[in-house]
Structures
1.
Amino acid sequence: MAYRNWGFWDNPFGTDPLPPTEHGSKLLVGRDEVLRNIKRRLDNSSKIVTVEGLNGVGKTSVVNVMAYRAFSETLRTGIGPLYVPCRKPFQLSVDVDADEFRLSVLREVAQTLIECHAEIPPPPGRTRTTNNTALDRFLNSPQVKSFSGSLLQFGLGYSSETNTGSGFEKSGFEKAVLDWLEQIFPTSTSGGVVCIIDNLELLQTCQNARDALERLRDSLFSVRGVRWVLCGALGIVHGVASSPRLDGKLHKPVVVEDLDEKFAGEIFDNRIRAFRDSRSSKLPLSRSQFIEIYDIMRGNLRSVLSECDDFCMWVSDRVEERDEFEDDFFEAWLAEELETAFYSVRSELRPRALEVFETACQFEVFSPSDCEVFGYETPNAMRQQIRNLEAVGLLKSAVDESDKRRKSIQVTSKGWKVRAYLDFFEDSF
Ligand SMILES: Nc1ncnc2c1ncn2[C@@H]1O[C@H](COP(=O)(O)OP(=O)(O)O)[C@@H](O)[C@H]1O
Ligand SMILES: [Mg+2]
């Protein structure tokens, strides 16, 4: 792997969400206020926490790190509700089967408790006691041992399972997990395993999404000892998750905005520190070049990291060793990227389309009802232009036929490259 040759134990520009671990916590930059807002909602009521923001802005990461920090804080101080971050986030598909989904959540929750238990260092003596009752109940629960065995059995049997004969085993398993959760988390203020349902916007139509969520309301969202956080695109809570049946069950969304530009350098420094395995490590990308990409991508973290990784791969296609990096690599790569993006859409960017695109870039994210500032009287009149720009990959809109005010159209990373091309070379255009 190129990064290994350069003195890193792993790719510093991976685009997966930050995990709920010490490593993830160290990589998180900024976000103090969002962390506090999410935690406060969890602490103060058993309602479902909702988090909204553009794709790639850092929603899943911030929830993961919040849950991890809450968990380690309670381990350290013995104070407060016990929150245990679930091992991985969940996603709903349009054809989700509520029972199957519930079973998969309970298996994951049980597995999470077992793994966390194993990671907490055993104290001297046989029983573990702290001054935190939820933590004590968790550390000393006899279920940990018995579950390790039975989960394996259920885990293996799960995929090949037929309907006959498995009903009893399934319900026996479910009941045992529910009992265990009730023991560790007997009241709504004892905490719980923090589970995320991610990317709610992937649900293609409002109706399917509402149905799926509503079906889970009684069977899953009310389970004691599991605390829910729903994440999705801007406006998704209003557009998808609010329905009479869920009304009163959801917190108002915590909005995750673009991370301020002033944090860009720190993100880079943190990653270098966390991923290098030798003092002599060296990347072809400098801190100021990272910040330049950050500016071009308007702070969308997933796009920024992905572009950095692209550049590093581009370099590794050309040279093997770190002492062969050349100073003008970055400029050459960037020019190539921007030109490729621009020339692939050039024929589509007729004057009217260009105007719409430039206005879109000013807004970064907008909705069809903003049509007037684009010079159109109705959303319908603007629609064809938006479709064209979408077809060439400069804009992306989330589907929501029911709410035209929802800000759901955003500029893509290709769009930002074209924008940068126009900024750099506008005179010659
Ligand atoms: N505050 C942050 N500091 C550093 N890196 C971050 C931060 N937030 C997100 N990231 C990184 O940005 C990328 C996108 O984050 P993610 O949480 O998956 O976004 P979202 O869930 O909003 O789509 C991930 O690779 C993640 O590691
Ligand atoms: Mg996410």
Note: Confidence is low (pLDDT under 50) at residues 156-165.
2.
Amino acid sequence: MRIIFCWDDGALQDQKLFALHEKYELPGMFFVPTSNREGREVLTPAMIRQARSPWVAFGGHTHSHVYLTQIPAEQIEPEISANQNYLQEVLGEPIAHFCLPGGKYKREMLPLLYRYFRTVRTADTMCFRNRGPLYRPALHFYPRGVKSLLGNALRNHSFPEARLVWARRREPYFTLLRELLQYEEPRNDAMVMIWGHSWEIEELQLWEELEALFALCSTRYRSCCIPYDAIDAAGGPAAL
Ligand SMILES: [Zn+2]
């Protein structure tokens, strides 16, 4: 099993996540838009620069956090390139990874996205073995209902995981999350991408729950936790 943490939207509460990644020495990837048209404040260039560390890396998430399926085709390139340029200027290093706002895309957009980025990620859940050409996360750090977990598991061909969810359907979500990790642990081809939003964690006050997970990962699963940049080596998606 390989575990990868990633967080979307660059909300100000990401600063709490930075601190947790430093404290537990776990690598985390932060996908940050230049601004957020939903009105949520985003990290300033100074905050981004200050956070960069061996445990904290950054990726693109569009210029205005717009769903790429909701804009005319000719606006897609400016949305992704302006944000990539912005982050590259702030950090002075290449930005190679991208996350689709809302996970929304059409297949025909992918060649353009891969001209700018080495990897592209969705906002999926319950995908434990990537089938390509995108990276699809396995666990949303947000208490999803059983129906959502099962629907996503079946769509992502995660059949043993769907069975596990059904068998444990009365357990609290975060207990289930730990059981899924335990189930994947011996599986060499499993990539467990855990993602979420710091603003959701703040809204639902899930910080203690998250810290418990970090504590578990930094002890029991330490050797499984890899930086996002090592994602290809963790069993990448098929070529386009
Ligand atoms: Zn987002």
Note: Residues 2-234 form a domain with the TIM Barrel fold (CATH 3.20.20.370).
3.
Amino acid sequence: MTDTNGGENDAEEEVEDELLLEIQQSIIDLEEDRTEELTKQAIDEGYDPLDILQKGLTKGVKTVGDKFGRGEVFLPELAMSADCMRAGVQHVDPLLADLELDDEDTGGKFLIGTVDEDIHNIGKNILITMLKANGFEVVDLGVEIPNEEFVEAVKEHDPDILGMSALMTMTMDHQEEVIELLEEEGLRDDLKIMVGGAPTSKEWCEEIGADGYGDNADAAVEVAKELVEEHRAAKA
Ligand code: B12
């Protein structure tokens, strides 16, 4: 199994930078305009777009998610935090699109979707931007993809990698179910499988027999590159 925890851009790291902390706080305060303004300021000041994304925006939205989990805020606040996130991401996204992690262009084909009963797509879409920036051809199936639809899409698109995003403990089992279905259809060994999303982990990836995990988009792209190479080498 291939994985990485994201190295220097690890979202779990303690953030000390004032502006990044302000970006986090603007999401916690649900001030969408402020998030947008501060994100633009950070871009103008030359901050690394991955830092803005991971140490600012993502940490902020996850804090609101934690409060929601503890019953301290409710669905309207959760939705507003997503609006804040998007207000920032729309400005970071074009920079991510230009961000090649290295010179190597593997030219891999990545099929991706969010699993059934799950509508979360902000993280998936960020990952897609970064995969494309790194030379991947991406087929995005969208959200709430039934297990069988993943299998049909694998048959249709013949990807190097299938990626499944799941943001909820009650939907992550679909990742395992899709792998089982692919096994039943004799397709499992013809592709690499990556899993991601907040409740997933390296351990979960191993447990369900996936090939790779990434806890953020740049880590995931690095893993994807290795897996494409492995896949191409095995096919050669
Ligand atoms: C924003 C948000 C929403 C938004 C989603 C908007 C959208 N279009 O995506 C809205 C308000 C709509 C929403 C709805 C709900 N949500 Co919500 N939501 C969140 C929140 C706060 C942030 C998610 C997010 O965007 N994070 C930012 C991105 C950048 O990070 P990310 O998604 O993790 O993605 C990164 C990595 O994980 C990785 N990655 C992601 N996908 C993949 C895939 C692959 C293959 C790989 C390799 C890597 C990878 O790369 C990404 C980029 O770095 C989370 C809290 C959290 N801790 O995640 C709760 C959370 C996921 N939601 C939760 C819940 C319960 C819900 C609702 C059921 C609430 C309700 N009562 O209706 C509904 C779900 C409806 C449904 N059927 O899906 C819970 C789930 C709890 C659980 N244990 O399962 C959470 C954890 C909040 C909580 N603590 O309670 N939500």
Note: The first helix runs from residue 18 to 28.
